[in-house]
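To assess whether the prediction recovers the assembly geometry, we first specified each molecular entity separately, as shown.
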Amino acid sequence: MDKMLSCQLICPCNNKEYISSASLKQHHKTNSHKYWEKDKEQKDILIKINRLENENEHLRRLNILLIERISDLEKN
Ligand SMILES: [Zn+2]
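The predicted structure of the complete assembly is given in tokenized form:
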């Protein structure tokens, strides 16, 4: 329980441990933390875009394959 509590008081932006949730909240208001948060959001968005593009490419190929199969079936 104590360990869990202390984990929650560590900010991932700097890996610093804060003595109380109030001081952690105070840290969340700082520019360095906000900058890190924005940077993280942008990275997350880029990862999502990348994933969607891969998925899109996969579906595009699958679509081509299915069209080929259908046209093969129609020939026979
Ligand atoms: Zn932080």
